[in-house]
Amino acid sequence: MTAQRATGALRGTLLEVGAVSRFTGRFFHEAFRSRFEWRELFRQAYLNGYLSLPLVAITAFIMGLVLTIQSRPTLAAFGAETMLPAMVSISVVREIGPVITALICAGRIGSSMGAELGSMKVTEQIDAMEVSGTNPFKYLVVTRVWSTILMLPLLVVLADAIAIWACYIGVNMRGTVSWSLFQQQVFDSLVFTDLVPALIKSVFFGLAIGVVGCYKGFTTEKGTEGVGRAAHSAVVLASLLIFILDLIAVQVTEILDLN
Amino acid sequence: MATERVNNIKLGAFVLGGTIVLMLALYLLGTKRDLFSRTVDIHAWFNEVSGLRVGNNVRYAGIDVGTVERITIVNDTQVVVDMMVRKDAAEHIRTNALARIASDGLMGNQLVSLQPGDGDGLPVVDGTVLRTVKGLDMDAMLRTLGSSNENLVTITTDLRELTQRMNTVNGPLALLSDTMLAQDVRLTLRGMVDAAANAREITAGVNMLVRDLQAGKGALGALVSDPAAEQQVRDLLSTLGSVSDSLARVSGDISRFSQGLNAPGGLGHTLTRDTAVVADVKRVIAHLDTSSATLSEDLRALQRNWFFRKYFKEKKDAREQQR
Question: Fewest beta carbons less than 10 Å away: which of A93, A151, A185, B318?
Fold first, then answer.
């Protein structure tokens, strides 16, 4: 019975992975074909990018400040307090900024996409669009996924900047470091191979959030109950994918000797 | 429609802000790696580079002037390091400069440190190969530290034995636990404190005395500061000089007089050395003694004489009244 259940779960997982892969393939197929829905893209970019900024900014600020305050005693034990800006900025730019921003977006955008598209699906609005001659995938999915792909790197850059600024405040809470010196310390420690892989990684995070959110919404079944499940599972799966992609990104940068 | 326009403006501002931050970050990172400044490529050959990596700083006179561009192994004993140095800094670096691998603090990154060589040289240009010197060798430092540790162990062992010997019953440290000694020391210290207080009082008194003296107070002060007194002292001293001269003369006279007395034929000599004279003197004294006894007897007889009895009686009464 247990073996049967395990086999069933495995089959379900493989089916899900296959379906998501097909969905992603369809996105890439449609993403670069003409008649682009620019207006909808801008609307989605506004909703998914601009409106996510306050949440991301607050989180980044707190993250930078907390990281600075908590790292200080450890560095002070080694007499290396002056390395605090370098340590926090490298941590934020390489790892914490992209991952935290992606997780916040997975929660906010993934659930919203799953719920919105799921509602449209169960109320047969998507079917209606097909009947009216509009390509629902191009209009609903491609624009949303592009918006997350484009907006996430921008959100990550702004989150990094805000976290580093919070680090500056944190450093000055128990000492005095001029902005000029702080900026020198930060950019002395950072290199292109810290920033560029993080931005590339955030593009993939955006893709994962958009694809999973749209897939879950687009494949919603069983009425309003399914809408809730779609929103919930979109967040869970997107978060899981973010961590898996992060692991892959670390391995790739390690292999390419970019660390 | 208006809302959509406003939203698009907000979106535009957001995208622009993010892009500007990204561009600024890329520009600052590029500036640090000298991507946007004119540079000069120079090289140095090392035997080993102690973990130097591409992108590490090149430092001249303590200032970061460039970065390591490439590190290539040439053969089994040599590594060539290609460096990118800013053009403005390269004008000050001479071809005879020395390159060595250094560290940016104990926990810092490795770097290439350039230092001026002896004598004059031309500024470096593209392709200049600098001479190298061996940098700090951490292994050698650790070996030295190891031998220092061994010495330290020996020293601490000796020190332990010494302290043990000092801490025995008859050792010098036993004195520290001697309560009598502590009491004596305390008493001595107290005595020293009293002595110091006395010394302070004496010093104060001397100070006051000196002040008074300087102010001309008191007899001594007047003597020291009064010109009239000074003159008097001079006069006194002068008088003392005259007296001394007179005394000298008198003592000379006395000396001569005594010599005269003691000279043969002198009074002193005759009285003390002439036996005949001495015998005469003794005889005279014997006669005087006899005469005075006779005279005493005669006087007692006279007192009993009726003619003088009244006189002696009145004399006796007067003496009794006086008592």
Answer: B318
Burial bucket for residue B223 (CB in 10 Å: 0-12, 13-18, 19+): middle
Distance of CA A153 to the CA centre of its chain: 9
Q: Do A43 and B4 touch (CB under 8 A)?
A: yes
Question: To probe the interface with A, which of B29, B35, B107 has the most A CB atoms within 10 Å?
Answer: B29
Q: Highest mean pLDDT range out of A144-158, B38-52, B83-97?
A: A144-158
Q: Is residue A15 part of a domain?
A: no
**Does the structure show a pLDDT above 70 at B107?**
no
With beta carbons under 8 A apart, name residues in chain A contacting B55: 191
- Residue B122 Cα to chain centre, angstroms: 54
ipTM over 0.90: no
What SS3 state is found at B127? Answer: coil
φ, ψ for residue B42 (rounded to 5)? -125, 165
The whole model's pTM is what?
0.62
- Tell me how close the Cα of B71 comes to any Cα of chain A, in angstroms: 15
Q: Is residue A113 part of a domain?
A: yes
Asked if B29's CB is within 8 angstroms of A192's CB, the reply is yes
* Contacts (Cβ under 8 Å, ≥6 apart) of A90: A189, A190, A194
What 3-state DSSP class applies to B132? strand
For chain B, the domains span 1-32, 39-136, 146-175, 275-306
